[in-house]
Every structure is written in C-alpha cells, then in structure tokens.
Design goal:
alpha/beta; 5-stranded mixed β-sheet; globular; Nucleotidyltransferase, domain 5; homodimer
Chain lengths: 326, 326
Amino acid sequence: MKWVIGIDLGGTNCVVGAVAADGSRVIGDHSRPTLPRRGEAAVIGELIAMAKITIDEVKRADPGAEILGLGAGAPGPLDIHRGIVVLTPNLGWTNVLLRARLSEALQLPAALENDANCAVQAECWVGAARNGQCVIGLTLGTGIGGGIVIDGKLSHGASDAAGEFGHMVIDFNGPICGCGNRGCIEAYASGVNIARRAKEMMAAGQQSALTAMSDNDPERVTAMLVYEAAASGDAVAQQVADDTARYLGIAVANLVNIFNPDTVVILGGVIHAGDALFVPLRCEVTARAFKPSTDACRIVPGALEGLAGVYGAAKAFLDQRASGVI
Amino acid sequence: MKWVIGIDLGGTNCVVGAVAADGSRVIGDHSRPTLPRRGEAAVIGELIAMAKITIDEVKRADPGAEILGLGAGAPGPLDIHRGIVVLTPNLGWTNVLLRARLSEALQLPAALENDANCAVQAECWVGAARNGQCVIGLTLGTGIGGGIVIDGKLSHGASDAAGEFGHMVIDFNGPICGCGNRGCIEAYASGVNIARRAKEMMAAGQQSALTAMSDNDPERVTAMLVYEAAASGDAVAQQVADDTARYLGIAVANLVNIFNPDTVVILGGVIHAGDALFVPLRCEVTARAFKPSTDACRIVPGALEGLAGVYGAAKAFLDQRASGVI
C-alpha cells in the first residue's frame, strides 16, 4: 500500500501520522506538545523523531508499504513554492526552511502547506465536505482562519496568504482586533473573544454559573466553558453563544455571497456546541445571503477533529506532487 | 481572421461588437438603449438586429473573416450551463432561454455569462488586469457587483452566483440596503447611495455647490455630480468622496485578506474620479489588510470602459467553448 506521512505543526501540539494515499486510513496519530521555547532545531528534531516512529509503525503494519513522501502543515505566512515558513509569531520562527530540513532528515520528498488550508482540504478529501467542488472552510480557534477550495483545488492567492477570513470586517465601528483594525470577525468570535464577551457581561454585574464553574477566576473562563455553561442553561453564556452564532452568521453570509460555495465547513473546538451553534448560524445566513446561494450551500461541522491536519498535510503532498509545485 | 460577436445586454444600454479572437481589436461597437417595456421578444430582436449589422461589417472589413460564435453578457442570476437568464428584475425577465434564442437566430454557437463576470474577465484578457492570475473585480454602478478570476479562470460558484461583493456587510449596524440587510457595502458606495449621502448632508443644512449644480433639484444629485463638485473643491462633496473611498477601502481590504489577489480592478463610472478615489482607497487598504497581501496586490481602474462587456462576452464564448461548457 502507498502511504504519505502527515505532519501537523501547531502552536500547542504537533501531530504526526501516516495516511494511506487513497485517504482510506491513518496509522500512528502521535501527538506531542510543541515546545517552542526549546528552539527551532529542537521542535523540528521532535517532528523528525515522531515521523521516524510513524514510518516504523507503517512498515510493521504493512510490510509492503511504499512511503511516497511527507507533507507538513504549519501556521503562515509561508512560501509554499520554496517550502519556507516565512514568519510564525507563535513559534518565534522567521524564514525556516522547514520543507528541506524534513525532507533531508527523512530522505523523502516533502511538501509544505498552510495549516488552515490542510484542515479544509482534508475535510474535502475524506471529511464533511467530501465531494465539494467549491468549499469554504472557517477554522475557529484562538484566532480565526480559513481555506478556499475552488474546482476541488486549494486557492493560495498571489503570495500564499489567501483565506484570512478572521480579519474580514463586519463592523468598522466594532471592537478593536488583535490586528489593530476594528470589527474583524475574529474580534467577536475567536475563542479568546468569546470568553472576553462573557467576562465583560460578568464584570458588568450579570449573574452567571460561569463564576462558580471558573472558581471565580476570570482567567479560567474559556470559550469551551462558555458553551458548557450555555448547554446547562446559563443565561449569560447562552447570550454569548447566541451572539457568537449571529456574528459568525454575518461572516458566513458574506462568504456565501462572495463565493457561492457548495459547502461551508466550520472547524475547531467550538463545533462541539452542535445545534446550539449551527441552528442559529444557519438561520442568520439564510436571512442574510442571496437565496440562490444559500439554496446551493450546506453549512456543516468538520468531521476529522484532531486528524484534519495530518490528513490535509498528506493530501497537500499528493496535490503538490501532482501539480508540479514540488 | 477569427472573430467572436460580443453582446452586452445592460439594463440601460445594449452594446454589440465583433472582437478578434486574439483580443487585438474590436469592430462595430454599436450601442442602443435597452427598452425593456417593449417586452422580451423586442429586446432580443434588437440584439439580433445589432449582431447582424455587426457581422456584415466584419465581413466587409475582413473578407476572409471566420465568425466562431457569439457571447452574451447579461445581469444575473443566470444558469450558465443551460444558457438561461433565470431572473432579471431590471428587465422583468424570468427563465429566458437567451443563449438558444440568439444562437438559433444568428446560426452561431453561443455562450451566456454574467455581465459583471464579463467585465472583469475582459480586464484580465486585454485590460488593466492583463496577465493577472488571481483577480478580483468590483463593478460600481447603480448597484455593486463583481467577479472572481482564480488561476486565470472565472469562478462561478455552485450555482453561478459567485461575486456578489455588493452585499458584503461592513457594518451590521449600518444603513439599510436594498437587499433588506444592514450595512452592505452597496448601502454606502453604490451610485445611488453616494448621491444619498450627499443629499442627506445637504438636507441637514450643509452648504454645497451641489445645490446650484443640480438646479436645487435633489433628483439631479448623482454620484457623477458629487465627484464633479468634489473636483471643484466643494467641501460636502469632498467629504462624501472621501467617505466613499474609505468604505470601498474597507470592502477591498476584506477582499484582499480573503483572496490575496494579484490585482483588484475597479470598474464603473466612478473610476473617472481618478486619484481622488484611488489614493485614499489604496491608503485604507494598506492600513487594513495584511502586509503580505497588500504587497502582492495592485489596485487599478478598469481600462476598457464601455467595451469591457463586449470584450468579456466574446471571451466568455472562447472560454466556455474551450472548457466544454458549450
């Protein structure tokens, strides 16, 4: 069987697995914390060690295994054609030749791809957006990112920076975003800002179960905790969750009007809120976007969870090899 | 020489010309007012008559002329694969088999394409966005529309409705748009809304040269008149023009962050404002969008003026023939 090693380099965790070249299965799925303070060489060394373990596992599980190469997903901005991580503030990296270093150490051809692009492409390949031809993926985490698939292909833009959906302005008079502008969707609906809105309501004196749930420590109020409190009926948390769905609905409606996608796939921990997120979000999109576009579009949670990055990195290798990028 | 007939069916005017298949020249360029009240058959009859005159001209000018086919650009929503104008409120049309009717009457293979897509694709082919691979076009007129070119190809979306940039929300608390939502960019920066903002400032008692320029008739305050007054130093008109550039800058910054295009091309009468529009617009984009994306992107006025639709319709025929749509 043919295999591709998929490496998902995240700010918090690294995940490595071997993906069957037809997307049918994954072997390995090792996860370790990323320890950026140890420095770039140590982090890359760890990825290489995890990949070697994975390769050994594949060879044990499938004695006829052929390992075609490896794909690595990393936070941007990247230079995909040159295989370089241009800048990754979370890791403190600048102009790291990640593709070449992985390729040399593992003696395999390698590809580099943006992490959000990997996750979205994985959902198109074997996940919730399978068979989608025009797919918009929105990754909701500490920040908000995304990926664009048109005619089944990732759209990278002119300098590998396409898909920065988090900094779409939905209210130019809105709250200040980490990027310095006002009213980006990220300033409302990233994990940090979901928690911020709940904390602001509590600081304004509204009673909430979140106070007890966080042991009265505002630092412990996270987006996850807000959704947990909302599920148990807390009014403040429900308000925050409803507002989040509405803000995201405005952003998704913009994307639906812009792209007329067949699928919008939402990724990130917040999708575990399920209907509490998706029902009001879809309502907002239906109320706002053009009918021919909403009629053509399904809005779904991602299906691959923590493996999206590994699947997507492997797929990036296959796609970049097929299109001659590597 | 090989030629394609280009038909640009607009709400106000129809333009028909013959375009050399290499885009090097156009013959004809006939424009007549669209008279929708006469009914669909009369409007289509007029297009056919104009096309026949154009074909005769081509044959006179180039005795060896080979006419490959015709392309028609029309306002959407369309069904491009079936060649149908699904709905055109301005013309009062529903489910008109425009492609088949033109093709039969003129005995030529035919293609149908969205009018904004035609204009943007024309600019990519022979205009201001020439050689662009990832191009976003914004058409500013009575309404605001657009087109998306990725890897040199128009992106139509799942149901031929992609590119509705006019209904991107930039302030969800903003003024009500014709679509019923609040704060779409169209509610600020379409021709109608540029004039509206000037009239509101005048109605609030601000002195403006626009009063005399419009013979004190608010109906005669148009976006064009506002830019004329701004050019002659009128403070109210300058404020409106500055605000317009800022609003458009917010929308363009969103599109630059989303697509990371190599070119944003702005089309419509308002581009005649020149630097008065483009200088503050580019400033706003640079201040707002991500640097790797603004660095990669030029923001330019369209170069083809009234012929963009004809060139683009002809190109749509060539592209749809090459890709097997027709």
